[in-house]
Design a protein that fits this description.
Chain lengths: 333, 330
Amino acid sequence: MPETATAVREISFADAIREALAEEMRRDPTVFVIGEDVAEAGTPFKVVKGLVDEFGKARVVDTPISEAGFTGLAVGAAMAGMRPVVDIMFGDFMTLIMDQVVNQAAKIHYMSGGKWKVPMVIRATMGATRRSAAQHSQSLHAWPSHIPGLKVAIPSTPYDAKGLLKAAIRDDNPVVIFEDKISYAKVKGPVPDEEYVIPLGVADIKREGSDISIIATSSMVQVALGAAVMLEEVGVDAEVVDPRTTWPLDEKTLIESVRKTSRCIVVDEGYFRYGITGEIASVIAENAFYDLDGPVRRLGARHVPIPFAPPLEDATVPNERDVVALARQMCNK
Amino acid sequence: MTIAAKQDAAGLGVQKALHMYRQMIAIRAFEERANDLYTRALMPGLAHLYIGEEAVAVGVCEALRPDDYITSTHRGHGHCLAKGAAPDLMFAELLGKEAGYCKGKGGSMHIADPGTGNLGANAIVGGGAALATGAAYASKMLGQDRVAVCFFGEGALGQGVLYESMNLAQLWKLPILYVCENNMYNEYTHFSETTAGDIPTRATAFGLQSETVDGQDVRAVHAAASKMVERARRGDGPAFLLMNTYRFRGHHVGDIARDYYRSKQEEQRWMSERDPIALFGGWLVAEGLAEKGELDRMETEVAAEMDAAVEFAKNAPYPDPARVDEDVYA
């Protein structure tokens, strides 16, 4: 995050994504957006609203409700010279495109001995607390992270969202980028006017601190930053580290942070079991064990389908109080 | 009858007809050697042979340009060869050798080759449907006039993504042919037990042009494919071709005892009466386009070429295990 924030305009997470798409579409005529209701509607989240006015319906392509079909079509189009950006309205629909992503897009380069390339991006949403119930609220970014051949980005700020999406579009591999639905309008931040790209695989220290490392992803970065302010009041100086991509994973930055602070919490909105927090915790345990004052601790979504009733749903996702309580316990404060 | 008149009667030039015959016997010879390599435990994995279905791949691919696209299937050796793949590099891939089309990383079910427009054989049934549709989409967006052909077996008729793809192709008038090879068996199950209703109607319901073709008659296949390819190239949209054919061998080489799903009499009947190579060879001779001795000589030449290709593959080195992590990312 640039330290010169005062000199830079502030825009929303959604605006940053739209800017990235527009800039890349202007730069490269092979880039096109494809998905359900992306043209005039600009998706239900209005993230791509207005792109059709500049680029037309041939490059902002409305599809039938056929996620597998249009995602697979994008794979073939990518092989044949295009750079598609696929819009998966709800990340829960990853289930519908898994064969195209996992068995096709991810493996084509390897299976062909490096001869074919699949330069495509899949934009999917994640995140609960929109009262959308079990099939429209999951954070499934661990799934593609598990598959060799895919790259996965999970931006937490407008600055990162724009820079990572631009890098993803220029990458010669299939990249899945998960965008937190709540952040679209709620999270605003500085984004410079001038062009920039954030390489995939570089973590970012969102807040420097010396007592404990809170490794947080996507929506949980805001939670961790909020918790860090509260922790400061009780004398705990928390460092917040955002990996920004789950694969490639910038292990070095995460390990160095924990070596410095000697305590670590990993917080992610995906399911707690067999997920991102487990993987990152194992990276820390394997590489910084002797620098730790205690076990790495994790916070993630409860192991339940996301419920509808607001008090139930809110109980499934880690919040600032959870992070503060755990950090205080670990720091004896 | 003059030679020129004979060519007209054939609907093919003599050279083209002989080339098609040669491609068909090359596929047969390739597959017989694949069978041999497999049964002698020289070929790892699985071998799904295309024997009996040669007229489909050759009839269709001879209607294509080198820069047109295909997607193939787990039973894909025939498509790859018909589209122009080199037998030595294919055998090397079948044996998992570094010299193979995919550096030994793909194997029999994943032969891919940008040089011949082969987007790849695909071991997911119906896996090529959306990919081929996407290549056709790119061709149209880029203002090219390349056509894509999606080969699939009738087993893929059970996969939803095929119908999603045909819907998209017709909506956007994409230059693609969906070529359904009905060899009558989804693995070990007769297609009548898996396929409700009428097959071509599934495509015509979306508005695709459709034709049902005798897949053992390479001339009929070529004529139908040529018509639909030209139509697609003109921008008039996709087509569906139902090729009725027969898998002479088992689902894979190890599928020996087949009595529980089909009779030896049925197999014998197809092999003795409906062999696409015998039918086309007989027609070439009957029409006076080739002498029997000429076809026999061609067979000897092809056999020698395939034997040399097998030797090349057998002698080629395996990939260095240190290369296992290469090619995961571009």
